[in-house]
Amino acid sequence: MDEKDENKNELSVDEDAKKQFLEELKNKNMEEKKKLEETKRKEKQEKEEQLKKTKEQEKPEESGQEEEEHLENTKIDNIKEESNKSDTVDEKSSDEKTSDNSSGSKKKKSLVPGNLKSSIIDTAVTAAISLACLYLFDLILRLLFGCYIADMKGMFIIVFLIVLILYPVIMKSCKLKKTLGEKFSRTSKGED
């Protein structure tokens, strides 16, 4: 029996040692987890700080670029205004001779320059005419020959380019001597 008691004692010692060892492992794992969490937090904070710093550094550069672009845009606008003024000075001088000085109509400044507005209107008109011609051509092909246009986008581009070239020539040779974009951009300014 002595041997059995000794074996039990050894087993109990071994079990106690195992328990202590497991507890130590758990403690070490917990400590390592805490360290990992802390390092992750620190890394996140450092990344956030770096992002903030880079954003702060980019903001002055962007604002400097924006200021330069704004200055360039204002210079371009001033040059356009001067050229428009020189063009309209002759018209105004002839208008002033015929009209009273007391009328004094003020012009409103447009957010979109006249040339850009006329280009947009002319492009939209050209696109509408091209689309109408394309569908008309497709309808004629379908009714007379039983064929159709397979690539509508490609054909639209071809028709659009043809109309884009012919539209200003035809409009300037007509009674108005202006394209629709030029007419509407002038009337919105009050120069017509």
From TrEMBL:
<keyword id="KW-0472">Membrane</keyword>
<feature type="transmembrane region" description="Helical">
    <location>
        <begin position="143"/>
        <end position="170"/>
    </location>
</feature>
<protein>
    <recommendedName>
        <fullName>RDD family protein</fullName>
    </recommendedName>
</protein>
<feature type="compositionally biased region" description="Basic and acidic residues">
    <location>
        <begin position="71"/>
        <end position="99"/>
    </location>
</feature>
<feature type="compositionally biased region" description="Basic and acidic residues">
    <location>
        <begin position="1"/>
        <end position="62"/>
    </location>
</feature>
<keyword id="KW-1133">Transmembrane helix</keyword>
<feature type="region of interest" description="Disordered">
    <location>
        <begin position="1"/>
        <end position="112"/>
    </location>
</feature>
<keyword id="KW-0812">Transmembrane</keyword>
